[in-house]
Amino acid sequence: MRATAVLVGLALGTYALKSAAPLMLGGRELPRPLARLALLLPAALLSALAVIATFTDRRSIVLDARAAGMAAAVVALWLRASFVVVVIVAVLATAAVRL
Amino acid sequence: MALAVTPFGIAFGVAGAKAGLALWQTSGFSVLVFSGSAQLAAVDIVGRGGAVPSAIAAGLLLNLRSLGFGVAMAPSLSGPWWKRAAWSQLMIDEATAVGSAQSEQRWRRYGFVFAGVVLFLAWNLSTLLGATAFAGAGDLVHRWGIDAAIPAAFLALLWPRLASVDQRVTAVVGGAVALALVPIAPPGVPVIAAGLGVAAGWRARRREGAA
After folding, report:
1. CB < 8 Å to A66, chain B
2. Hey, which of B79-83, B160-164, B172-176 has the most confident mean pLDDT?
3. Is residue A10 in a domain?
4. ipTM > 0.95 for the complex
5. Domain count, chain A
6. pTM, entire model
7. Inter-chain CB proximity A94 and B69 less than 8 Å
8. Average pLDDT in the B174-183 region?
9. Which of A9, A74, B25, B182 could join B21 via S-S bond, C-beta 3.0 to 4.6 A?
10. Per the CB < 8 Å rule, is A49 touching B37?
11. What is the per-residue burial (b if ≥16 Cβ within 10 Å, else e) of A22-57?
């Protein structure tokens, strides 16, 4: 039930954000502060999600094999690897540490 | 590119099953929301027992960027309202990137729609695969390190944004705030609170501009 509520709410809200400009804005630009917010907010949240998915287990902070996977991912990104390579490198490095 | 979203899609399918979602719910997210990072964030919060509004808010804050994508693509997406309504569902990072790379308006639209449709199919097929074939394999997911695909995907999406100082400051502060809050705040709240990183990043550019 909770999952369905999240599904409906997130689907409607996301569609509103996706379609606002094509349906209503036409060729006009966003007000600058809003454009800035739309640019910066994802950086904060993606970082938070990456950190939480790496260093936490439920509600405790942990350091385990996933951290090694992320370190490998950083190296791959530094070497300009593509999205799929980065993900695979992280998976393999994590698996290797857990062997 | 379609290949690139496949591990991420599988990881989402597994995450949905692990969070206790029915198959139609997990797939429903991929069809109706169609935004990888927001889906994962919301489903993760549901799985950790977070409140419904926190899960929705975390996903929507993350998707504020699709408002920006819409602004970038709107001039190229001319046509009757029902076409623009359908195209809007494809407003994701990759489709916008392909569309924006073309110079002529018509080709921008073709690129956007083509990439969007291909990714929509790949994303939904891989979600199904993850939620069915890989769902019961919790132990295997752990042993093969497939759980690491999720933070890696977030990191890869974040990486190109770190080129600018203000986004870098925003990301560092946001990540630190979130991690600090995990042990003490209800699930979902740390991700939303990470938005405070924006305040730090906002000032970073002003300083950069002044120098």
Report:
1. 145, 147-148, 151
2. B172-176
3. yes
4. no
5. 1
6. 0.82
7. no
8. 95
9. B25
10. yes
11. bbebeeeebeeeeebbbbbbbbbbbbbbbbbbbbbe
